[in-house]
């Protein structure tokens, strides 16, 4: 790992996301540390936000978020880098004992998996078995608000992965560890039981994970074991790209230009890693018992009904082969038209590989390389337009992960722009319920919300429309929507979801300016002009023909809509727009000294 330690460490990092206990002070407790003082509207955001207080301490102040911006608090990635530096000599000196372990997390594939490949090389060189593990953590699923459909996809993927690894004589050992705190110790216990000296893993960039891994690196070193971690999930590792002034980019376009130039200059970033080598027969013998391990069921709290599980198996087949098939098919049939068709939700013109990128059944490298190889040029920003555009969309995923690593407080209920903490949101539960259930009376919004409820997926254009509707038309706290998405999406990914909500709510990095407010009716007419998408997902409106489908109660189809049980609009766009503009303006004013 490249290392870059901050020199201005005047504030401790530990308090803002470590696992909390009931002893923690409640909000508004009069803490004397100004960096810990919550902002004026924190109390309600606390109740409705993305962070579950059962697991995390109270929301930080704007001042503390700004201390991260000023490099006065070490970022979690820097803590991991420091742990790697401090243990470098000890890790180098650690001799391979009886086995090497790869710890799978969100990298559930054998092909083009950097950490797995490195682990395999280590095991092969020493002629010891490679063992793979996956830890099912019900508390992690709960704390991270992982949707049951996403958990189900993970469990199904584990079955496929186990089979693929077994074909290479490599066991996949899966165990449920109830308390997330116990995971590091349990992994050390496995290693000691198996005589393993080395643990390999790819880095996850969420705050919890970075801090946990930093502690594990040190803990293992103290026990004479070595933990090695690798950048794998992004094409360009976070922290590699800087503006001319040496800062992290906060605007996508210049970041993208820099990302493209960096990949062009470092072509190996798109080179695939081979699958792991087969364990030798002697090595296989040594770990034979581990092949009998069963994959547990999803934890009770995240289990799907039989009916849903069956349905989703058909809609979202799991495993890396499925991922590659989906990608190849998209590149064969649709990518050339992507830039022209991608915004029309009725057309299915996008790849729907987000589920695989989120679970790690596909690498971003592989996605980009496969698309690039269909082009007439090796340049990422030249040639066939559809390919260029698609690659630039996959790059958004890297962008938002870079943002998360540099501004870790976005993981902690804080908007990227701290001053947007001071907006007085509405917490109208009837409005929120109508939005969640696709009963707002705005057909395009309702169609999209019903799509996510039914499939665990929503088209990108619709994600932007419903997000804008929630926070601008209904003035609901954007974090309520962010959380709902995580709890319902099969492709829920913290960085992309937070980035998407930040963009739509105008509180994030490179956002839609707050005064640019989507008009849901115009969006509907433009991107679903024939109403096909609406008719697919809102059966009550199927009989309505022509343009009335976009707004039945104001376009002469009110009685048909009413008879079919479709609700009247819960808001008036013009009034809502004015209210949102005032609320945003007032929020920003409030932050001024
Ligand atoms: C409010 C909101 C919430 C979102 N939440 C998530 C989420 O939880 N998980 C998630 O993967 N994406 C999220 N996105 C981004 C985007 O909507 C999905 O990645 C995309 O719809 C997935 O469909 P696809 O695979 O067919 O995309 P394609 O159009 O085929 O794009 C290919 C890939 O590029 C990446 N990508 C495309 N657009 C974006 C984007 N705007 N931001 C980040 N990555 C992008 C995805 O990995 C996607 O799979 C969100 C967007 C918004 C506006």
TrEMBL record:
<protein>
    <submittedName>
        <fullName>Deoxyribodipyrimidine photo-lyase</fullName>
    </submittedName>
</protein>
């Amino acid at each position: 790992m490249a290392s870059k330690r901050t020199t201005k460490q005047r504030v401790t990092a530990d308090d803002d996301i470590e696992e909390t206990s009931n002893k923690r002070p409640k909000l508004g407790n009069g803490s004397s540390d100004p960096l810990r003082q919550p902002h004026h509207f924190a109390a309600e955001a606390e109740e409705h936000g993305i962070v579950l207080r059962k697991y995390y301490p109270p929301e930080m102040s704007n001042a503390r978020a700004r201390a991260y911006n000023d490099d006065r608090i070490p970022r979690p990635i820097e803590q991991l880098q420091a742990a790697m530096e401090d243990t470098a000599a000890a890790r180098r000196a650690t001799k391979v004992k009886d086995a090497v372990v790869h710890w799978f997390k969100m990298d559930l594939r054998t092909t083009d998996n950097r950490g797995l490949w490195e682990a395999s090389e280590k095991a092969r060189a020493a002629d010891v078995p490679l063992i793979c593990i996956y830890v099912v953590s019900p508390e992690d699923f709960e704390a991270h608000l992982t949707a049951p459909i996403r958990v189900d996809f993970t469990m199904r993927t584990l079955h496929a992965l186990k089979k693929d690894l077994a074909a290479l004589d490599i066991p996949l050992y899966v165990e449920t560890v109830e308390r997330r705190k116990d995971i590091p110790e349990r992994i050390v216990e496995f290693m000691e039981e198996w005589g393993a000296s080395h643990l390999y893993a790819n880095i996850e960039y969420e705050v919890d994970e970075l801090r946990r891994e930093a502690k594990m690196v040190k803990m293992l070193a103290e026990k004479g074991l070595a933990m090695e971690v690798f950048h794998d999930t992004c094409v360009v590792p976070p922290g590699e790209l800087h503006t001319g002034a040496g800062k992290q980019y906060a605007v996508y376009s210049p970041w993208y230009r820099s990302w493209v130039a960096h990949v062009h200059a470092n072509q190996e970033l798109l080179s695939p890693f081979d699958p792991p080598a087969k364990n030798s027969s002697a090595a296989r013998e040594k770990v034979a018992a581990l092949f009998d391990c069963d994959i547990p069921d999803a934890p009770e709290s995240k289990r799907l009904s039989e009916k849903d599980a069956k349905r989703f198996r058909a809609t979202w087949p799991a495993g890396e082969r499925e991922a590659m098939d989906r990608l190849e098919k998209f590149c064969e049939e649709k990518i050339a038209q992507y830039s022209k068709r991608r915004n029309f939700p009725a057309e299915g013109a996008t790849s729907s590989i987000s589920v695989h990128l989120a679970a790690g059944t596909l690498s971003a490298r592989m996605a980009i390389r496969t698309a690039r190889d269909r082009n007439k040029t090796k340049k990422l920003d030249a040639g066939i337009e559809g390919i260029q555009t698609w690659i630039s969309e996959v790059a958004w995923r890297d962008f938002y992960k870079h943002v998360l690593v540099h501004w870790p407080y976005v993981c902690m209920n804080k908007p990227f722009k701290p001053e947007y903490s001071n907006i007085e949101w509405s917490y109208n539960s009837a409005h929120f319920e109508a939005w969640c259930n696709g009963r707002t009376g705005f057909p395009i919004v309702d169609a999209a919300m019903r799509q996510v409820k039914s499939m665990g997926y929503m088209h990108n254009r619709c994600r932007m429309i419903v997000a804008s509707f929630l926070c601008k038309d209904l003035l609901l706290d954007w974090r309520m929507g962010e959380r709902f998405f995580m709890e319902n999406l099969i492709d829920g990914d913290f960085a992309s979801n937070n980035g998407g909500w930040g963009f739509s709510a105008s509180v994030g990095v490179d956002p839609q300016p707050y005064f640019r407010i989507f008009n849901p009716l115009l969006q509907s007419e433009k991107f679903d002009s024939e109403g096909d998408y609406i008719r697919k997902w809102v059966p009550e409106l199927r009989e309505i023909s022509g343009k009335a489908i976009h707004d039945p109660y104001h376009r002469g189809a009110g009685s048909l809509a009413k008879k079919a049980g479709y609700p009247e609009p819960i808001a008036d766009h013009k009034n809502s727009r004015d209210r949102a503009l005032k609320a945003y303006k007032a929020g920003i004013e409030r932050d001024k000294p």
